[in-house]
Design brief:
The structure is a single chain. This protein is mainly α and 248 residues long. Helices cover 76% and strands 2% of the residues. The model has no long low-confidence stretch (mean pLDDT 80). Keywords: Membrane, Transmembrane, Transmembrane helix.
């Protein structure tokens, strides 16, 4: 008999690890912050497991609760990150607490829906083999190129001349990458390409602002959003935050 894993166990573990990491960060103990960030980022990564299972039709839960859970966690982490970056206002701290309480509600609703779901590695492997990743392969080089460029720009901010030169290069790279991605989207039946062009550029501009302000962690979040929006569109994922309108 194939050994099955209860999805709820993975979900609850990531939930507890996430808030344990947030708790350590809020204590702001020198030497532990890096460990806490790794813990939180790992928990966020595993929090995306339901995303894949929903889109592979291996699990059926309310997508609104799933989105609420993931987005709330991301906002809690970003607010904690800003709080530690000298934005130590009590209002931000109270907002972190308030959103965490809201997250407990969405986590409870998800727990109710997945508590009896068990999956084996073979079931997941079989579903993955049915997925056509040709569309994903077309954009992966561009997404990887954007991420590498974003990482370089986020870490090369020592003086004004460097910011200016790297910023110009980064802009031209994004011009090339956005148009290549838009070309792939068009070829795969996505019609509202101008809307997505604007979204990609907004993410890029925010990324540059965060990089110049030395908010490097936010740059990685923005690059992750770039990936997520593009891949969700191409694969028409049910959990996509930005969706293509169905033609009537």
């Amino acid at each position: 008999m194939k050994r099955k894993i209860k999805v709820v166990h993975i979900y609850l573990l990531t939930f507890l690890l996430f808030y344990f990491g947030i708790f350590i960060l809020l204590q702001n103990v020198p030497g532990l912050n890096y460990f806490a960030i790794v813990l939180v980022m790992t928990a966020l990564l595993f929090s995306c497991v339901p995303d894949a299972l929903i889109n592979l039709e291996l699990m059926h839960i309310n997508i609104c609760w799933y989105k609420s859970d993931l987005i709330t966690k991301m906002i809690v982490f970003m607010l904690t990150y800003f709080y530690l970056k000298n934005f130590t206002y009590p209002e931000i701290f109270l907002l972190i607490i308030g959103l965490s309480i809201i997250n407990v509600v969405s986590a409870f609703m998800i727990w109710r829906e997945v508590k009896n779901v068990s999956l084996s590695a073979d079931e997941i492997k079989e579903k993955l083999q049915q997925v056509n990743d040709e569309k994903t392969a077309q954009v992966l080089p561009y997404l990887a190129g954007y991420s590498i460029c974003a990482a370089f720009f986020a870490n090369m901010q020592d003086f004004f001349g460097e910011i200016l030169i790297c910023g110009i290069i980064y802009l031209f790279v994004n011009v090339y990458i956005v148009e290549k991605i838009i070309f792939v989207l068009k070829n795969n039946g996505i019609k509202s390409v101008n809307k997505y062009r604007v979204i990609f550029w907004l993410i890029h501009i925010l990324n540059m602002i965060f990089a110049i302000g030395k908010y490097d962690m936010m740059c990685y979040f923005m690059a992750g959003d770039y990936w997520m929006i593009c891949l969700d569109l191409l694969n028409k994922n049910k959990t996509a935050i930005v969706k293509e309108k169905k033609s009537s």
